[in-house]
Amino acid sequence: MASAARGLDRGPRVLLPFCALLALLGPARGVHIKKAEAAEPGEALRYLHAAELGEALRELAASAPPGLARLFSIGESVEGRPLWVLRLTAGLEAPRAGEEPGGSPLPGRPQVKLVGNMHGDEPLARPLLLQLARELVRGWAGGDVRIGRLLNTTDLYLLPSLNPDGFEHAQEGDCGGGVASGRENSRGRDLNRSFPDQFEASEPDLGPVPEVRALIAWMRRNKFLLSGNLHGGSVVASYPYDDSPTHKPTGVYSKSADDEVFKYLAKAYASHHPIMRTGKPNCPGEEGETFPEGITNGAQWYDVEGGMQDYNYVWADCFEITLELSCCKYPLTSELEQEWENNRESLLSFIEKVHIGVKGFVRDAVTKAGLENTTIVVAGIAHNITAGKYGDYHRLLVPGTYNVTAVAMGYTPLTRENIEVKEGDATEVDFFLQPAVMAPAPNITQLTATPAPASTVASTVVQAEAPSPTSLHQPVQPVDFRHHHFSDMEIFLRRYANEYPNITRLYSAGKSVELRELYVMEISDNPGVHEAGEPEFKYIGNMHGNEVVGRELLLNLIEYLCKNFGTDPEVTDLVRSTRIHIMPSMNPDGYEKSQEGDRGGTVGRNNSNNYDLNRNFPDQFFQVADPPQPETLAVMSWLKTYPFVLSANLHGGSLVVNYPYDDDEQGMAIYSKSPDDAVFQQLALSYSKENKKMYQGSPCKDMYPNEYFPHGITNGAQWYNVPGGMQDWNYLNTNCFEVTIELGCVKYPDAEELPKYWEQNRRSLLQFMKQVHRGVWGFVLDATDGRGILNATISVAEINHPVTTYKDGDYWRLLVQGTYKITASARGYNPVTKTVAVDSEGAVQVNFTLKRTDAKVEEGKVPVPNTPDTSDPNEKEFETLIKDLSAENGVEHLLLSSSGKVSPYRYRPYKDLSEFLRGLYLNYPHITNLSSLGQSVEFRQIWSLEISNKPNQSEPEEPKIRFVAGIHGNAPVGTELLLTLAEFLCMNYKKNAAVTKLIDRTRIVIVPSLNPDGREIAQERGCTSNIGRTNAHGRDLDTDFTSNYSRYSGTREPETKAIIDNLILKRDFSLSVALDGGSLLVTYPYDKPVQTVENKETLKHLASVYANNHPSMHLGQPGCPNKSDENIPGGVIRGSEWHSHLGSMKDFSVTFGHCPEITVYTSCCYFPSAGQLPGLWAEHRRSLLSMLVEVHKGVHGFVQDKSGKAISKAVIVLNEGLRICTKEGGYFHVLLAPGLHNINAIADGYQQKHMQVLVRHDAPSSVFIVFDMENKIFGLPRELVVTVAGASMSALVLTACIIWCVCSIKSNRHKDGFHRLRQHHDDYEDEIRMMSTGSKKSLLSHEFQDETDTEEETLYSSKH
C-alpha cells in the first residue's frame, strides 16, 4: 500500500514505468541480470503461484513438529482460490470435527497476524511470510531459544496472500503498478478501500469482495491483539489513522487515541530494517521523500478511506500497522534473498511486541469466574478494549504509569492506580469485581478522561480484590443421577470423552479378574500430556464393589467438570492448572455382584477371586499372604506411571476422612503417625469442612451410636487396623499423598438418594482437589545445560519423607504453613538447601540449580568434551523425536498413531517362520535383508533379518541393536513377538514418521529362532515342560557360550558358533535384547557368579527401561505358579542372583562382544496357548519399541587427530573399567546410565585424553575427541624415539672422543715413521709414492668422498 499503491493519483509515480524501462535497457541492468543468473541455481526464495503456495504450506505444516502448525483457509477469493492461513504456536491439538478451522484460541496466549499481498501486484510478502514460517519451524525443531520462547508464548497466524487472484495477473518486475496490473481483486475492487470506515456513516458493499468478508468474519471469531499488513511501493512503516474526517488527500496528521503505542510499534519494525530506519527510501521518482525514523502517520502521508488497519483498531481492538517493504512493488526473484535479510529481524521484533503493556484476568470476586466482555479502561486513552471468553485481557501500552479500570455490567467498577508498565513483558494485573444489584451504568467516557498520576510502583504483578457478597454465577449441575452398571458406565465415559475431546482422554489402567476395563477419565486442558510444573491428581472409587456412592459421585464429577469448563472460573482454573485422573471403579466385578439397598453387607465387597483389594497391597509392617490381584497390580503400575501428588480413595459405610497410617507394627488400634501427619490432617480437614454432616463427627448414630470423629477426620490405625491398605502404599512407594474418604453410612443407597450425596460432597470434592496446589513446587535443574534432573530428591528437614522429581525435573511437595529447610540432591551433583516460607494459601515455587560434584570440571582442569555441530535440522529433529518418545506415553502415542494394526495369533513352525521372513524381505526389499547365520544340528537355517534404510551396508555412525529369541526351543513367545515387531516396523515405514526416522537412524537385526530344532518338538501349553529346551544334541545353548572361545570353538554347538562368529564377534552392536520364557522379569549380566560387575548401573538401567515400559513387570511380582513368594524389586535382577549358570549368551556378549545384553522373560508359561499371544504382544510391544529408542542414548562419539584424520580402533575407557574400541571412521557409541561418567581415550601413538560427560535419560550425549598431537616418530612411540635419540647422542659424543684420542696417538706414530723413511729412503720410496697417490685420489676424486664428513674431518684428511 505505497504511495501509488494507495492512491493512483500521485503524479511522480507515473514516471516509474518509464524509469523501469530505462533501467532495463541500461548497462547497469545487464549487470543485475548477470547477478541474478549467477545466483539462480542456489536461490532459496521464489514466487509461488496459488497451487504451489498451497502445496508448500501443506508440506511445511505436515513436516513441522507435532502440535506446532495448523494450516487452514478462512475463505475463498472471487475465482475460488483458498485464502490460506498458517497458524504457528506450541501446544496445538489435532483438528477435531466441527471445530473452528484454525482451532480454538489458547487462553492467555496473545494472537498476532501478518497479512500479505492485499494488492495482487505487491507480492513480496508471499515469499517472505513463507520463509518466516520455515525459519520458525526450523528454529523450534532446532532448539533456538528465541524462537522457542516466541512460539511458546505467542499465537501467530500468517496469511501470505489475501488477493491470490490479483497476483495471478501481476507481472514480475512491475515496480510501479497501474491499470490491469493485478492490484485489485477479480471484480476490480481495491481490497484496501473496501472496509467499513470510522469517518463514513454508510456501510460499504462487501458483495464484490469475498476476500474482505472472509477476513472480517475471521477477525470476529478471534481476538487478535497485533497485526501487520505487508505491502510494497515504498519503504516505511505507516500507522493509524489512515484517513481523516476531512479526507484531505495528504498532510493531515490523523491521530488515534493510541498514537504513542502505534509509533512505538512502527519504530520496532523500522529500527531493524537497514533501509527503512534511515527514513530515506530513495525510491525512483520519489527520491526526495523522507520519513523521520522510517515511520509515518497514514493520513499525513495520504488519505486512504476504508483501509484495513483502521478497521482492525476501531472495530476489533487489534493494533495493526501497514508495512511498505520495498520501492518496487513486484521485485525480481533475484532480489528476494536480500529482501528477506532486510526484513527478517524486523518481522521477529515486531511480533515480539505483542507482549508489551498490561494483561491479566477479570473475575467475579465471589465465584472467581472469568467475566467475559469486561471493559478495560486506561485513564487518559480514549480507546477501550474488552476481556475475552475467560475474563482474560491484554492491553498494549508503552512504558509508563497508568490507572486502569475494569467495568462489567452488574459489578462495581474497580480501578488500579499507579500501575507501572516497563519495557519488555506486560505487567500482570488481575481484577476481582464485586457483584452489584441494579447498579447504574458507569460513565465510561468520564473514566477515560481521568489523567494518570505521575507516581510509580515497583511491583509488576497486581491483584485487586474486595469482600465477596453472593455470586450471580451458577454452575451447571449434573443431571445423570442413577446407578451405572458396567456397560452403562462404559457408555457414559465414552460419551463424555467424545463430547469433550479438548479436555478429556479415556484410557484403561488394566483389567479386572473378569477382564473388565479399569477405566480412567483424564480431564485436563492438554489431555494425554504431562505439562512440566503441573501437578497430577487422582480419585479412585468403588474399591469395594458394594460401596457405590464414590463410583456415582465420580461420574457426577466428570459431568460437572466437563459441562462447566470454560464458563465456570473455578472449574476452568482447576482443569487448566491440574491434570486430573478419575477412576470411577477399581472393582467392577464386585459391583456387578452387589445389590442396591445394601446398608452394611459384604456381598460384592471383594473381587472375583474373593480377595479384599484394600488388604492386598504390600505393607510396611506385615507380609501380605494373599496373592496380588490383577486390579491391585494394575493400580500399582498406574501409580508408577504418572507423577501423582494427591489422591483420595472413596469408600462407604461411615462418614469420615481417614488418613495414614492405616496400621502399625503391633497390629493394634492406636494412633499410627506418619512423618507428614500435619499435612494429612490438613488434607482431611479440607474435605470434611465442606461437608457439614461429616464435620460434626457423629455420622451414623443409628448404626454406630458411640462412634465420634472430631471434625470428621481420623487416623486410620486409631480407628481400626488395616494391613495391606492402598493409602499407605501410595505414601510409602510413590510421591502421592492419599486419604480414604467414607462417604456415607449406607454402602449401596437407593438411586433416589444420589442427588443428596452429590449436594453434600460437591464442594468437598472440588476443595480437596485444590489442595494439590499447596506447599512447594518447582524444578531441579542442571547448572551446566539448564535441563531438568530426573529422580532428584527433595527432602525437608525434620520430615523423614523425601519426594523425587519427574522427567522435566519438576517436583511437588505438600506442606502446611511454616518455614522449612528444603534440600535438593541428585547423584553426581552437589546438594543445595534453601529456607522457604510456606503460606496458608497457594504453593510457593522454589527452583534448585545443582552443580556437578567434580569441581575439576568447573575449574577447567579436566577437558570438557567437544560436541559435534548439531545445527543440522535433521539431527535436531531426531533428537526431539527421541526426547518425545522418552517422555511419558511417548511410545504409546507412537503406537496409537501407527497404521496397520498387527498382532500375533498363532505359532509358526520352522517352515512357516521361514516363509514369513522371506515374505517380509520380498515385500519390503528396500529396508530388509534376510540372511542365514548358519545351520542347526538338523540343518535348519538360523535366520537373521536386518531392518534398515540401507540394509547390508556398513554405517558405523548409526547404533546397531539385535533382538534374539528362541535360545530355548520350548519358549517360543519371544519368536512370535519378534516376528510381529518386524512386520510392525516394515508396515509403518514411510507411513508413520516416528517409525520411519527410527529405521532410518538404526540398524536393527532380528534373530527370531536360535534353536529351531528344539522349537520343532516343543509342545503348546507346555508351561513347565522342558521338551525342546535343548538343541538336537541335548545341549542347553545358554550354557555353550564358554569363556575361551578360541580354544573350544571346534567343540561348540553349530547354533552357538553361528551367532558368535556372525553376530557377537563382529563387535558392532550397541545393545542386545534376548527373549526367553518361564517368568516375568528382566535379568542383566552376569549369569555367572562374580564379585563385582563392571558398568552395573548401566546394565541395570537398560533392564529397567524394558521392565518400566511393561504394564506389570516393573512391579516385581511375577506371580508365577510355585513362585508366590518371589519378589523382584522393579522386575529387574542380576542373572547370577536369580539362576546362576556358566556359559550364557549375555555374559559372552558383554565380555567378548563388548555389547550389553539383557534377557527378558516374557511370561510365566514357557509355551502358553496361542490365544494368549495378542495379549502378550500388547504387553511387550511398548517395551520392545522403547529399546529402539534407548539404543540412541548414552554417548555417541567421534575420535580424530588435529589434521582431521579419523582414528579407528582407539580404546575408550569408561569409568576406569569398561573398554570399547572406535569403529571405522572413528565412531563409537556406548550406552550408559544417566549421570556423570569419566571417559579416557587412548590411541597408539597419541597422548591420552580424559574428560567427563553427562548422560541424560531422554537424549543422546555427544563427544568429539581430538588428540592434540601425534605421538609417533618414524612409526615409533615418541617417548621411545626421544630416549633412543638421547642415548645415541651420548654414544656419538663418547665415540668422537675415543676417535680423537686414537687419531692423536696415530699422528705421533706417523711422525716417527717419516723420520725413519728419510733414513731408509731407498727401501720405502715405492711405498711413499703409493701413499702419496692414494692421498691425492682421496682429495680429488669425488666418488671417493663421504658426504657425511664434517669440514674438520675433510681438512684433517687433506693434511695427510
Automatic annotation (TrEMBL):
The lineage of its organism: Eukaryota, Metazoa, Chordata, Craniata, Vertebrata. Residues 590-599 have a biased composition (Basic and acidic residues). It is a single-pass type I membrane protein. Residues 46-354, 482-772, 906-1191 form the Peptidase M14 domain. GO terms for biological process: peptide metabolic process; protein processing. One of its GO terms (molecular function) is zinc ion binding. This is Carboxypeptidase D. Belongs to the peptidase M14 family. Its cofactor is Zn(2+). The active site is at 324 (proton donor/acceptor), 742 (proton donor/acceptor). It catalyses: Releases C-terminal Arg and Lys from polypeptides. It is found in: Cell membrane. Residues 1-30 form the signal peptide. It is an enzyme of class 3 (hydrolase).
